[in-house]
Amino acid sequence: MINLLRTELYKIFKKWRTYISFITIGGLTVVVEIAMLFEGKHYVEYATRSLGESFFFTGNFLNGYLIANMVLNTLTIHIPFLITLVAADLLAGESTAGTYRLLLTRPVSRFNVISAKFLAGLIYTNLLVFFLALVSLGLGIIMFGTGELLVYRGSIVIFNANDVLWRFFIAYCFAGLSMSVVMSIAFFFSSLVENAIGPIIATMALIIVFIILSSLDLGFLKYIKPYLFTNYMSEWNTVFDYPVQWWDLAKSSMILFCHVVGFYFVTMLLFRKKDILT
To answer: Rounded to whole angstroms, how far apart are CA atoms 108 and 128?
Structure first.
């Protein structure tokens, strides 16, 4: 199993498309940080304008923590597509290349093959989130330093500098879990077709449709919304509430984890019955 996993990771990282995700995230983060060098003060002034007449603010609000929080807020917008570029090819790519039979004639079970590919996809996904943390939080601290974290979502919450890092740690862990759901969906679609383009389109279409349904305020949708995984993908924001809504965070984590496990087992069942012709 370890050798299979090592092989799958090698196959993932030898393809140039894998590095598109890292280059995109790195480039986007650098652009945001450069923009904040010139416009950051205006952002802070805008966020605190309603309180500026009543309170006098001191401290370094334009810091790496603020930058990292801003970049993390874009997670559900651009990273899912980057993940599907790789995840959608994990199984469909074997079919496209005609290597299914060669792969399955090795003395390994289909269970081990699917498990190794799925774990490799999870590792890639979480490495991408870790890279996001590295370039947004790490580079942000180098460029802007540290200080109090200003969170603005309709109302202003200011966290002390020594009360921030553990919140980011939990937020990035939750982000890795939510992006693992995207990976597992793309992996599922990848098992159904022979070309990676279909799973990429299907996964992104599903996410977009669910996001739209979640935003619609219609009566009959209230029975559907609890089952839409997109409702829970941004619950990492609760880490930056005061106080932290631990129960909501735990419930959302469990729902997303069940989605990951569920798609893994459904894919396993389908693949074990799949008739490999090429």
So the answer is: 29
Ordered alpha helix ranges (H), the chain: 2-13, 16-47, 64-72, 75-87, 89-97, 100-104, 110-133, 139-144, 165-190, 197-215, 246-272
Contacts (Cβ under 8 Å, ≥6 apart) of 118: 90, 184, 187, 264, 267
> Residue 164 is encoded by which pair of tokens?
């921030």
CA distance 84 to 95: 17
What is the residue type of 248?
Answer: D
For residues 26-54, one letter each, b for 16 or more C-beta atoms within 10 angstroms of the residue's C-beta and e for the rest, the string is: bebbeebbeebeeebeebbeebbeeeeee
Q: Which residues in the chain show pLDDT less than 70?
A: 1, 40-60, 75-76, 93-108, 152-155, 218-219, 274-278
Question: Cα–Cα distance between 187 and 172 in angstroms, integer?
Answer: 22
Helix axes 110-133, 16-47, angle to 10 degrees: 40
- pTM, entire model: 0.86
Residue with tokens 């995700």: 21
Bridge partners (DSSP) of residue 149 are 159
Torsion on CA atoms 69, 75, 79, 83, rounded to nearest 10: 110
- Residue 214: both structure tokens together: 């979640």
Report helix, strand or coil for 175.
Answer: helix
What mean pLDDT value characterizes the chain? 80
- Asked whether the beta carbons of 211 and 114 are under 8 A apart, the reply is no
Distance separating alpha carbons of residues 161 and 176, to the nearest angstrom? 24
CA–CA separation, 97 and 112 (whole Å): 20
Contact between residue 9 and residue 120 where contact means Cβ atoms under 8 Å apart: yes
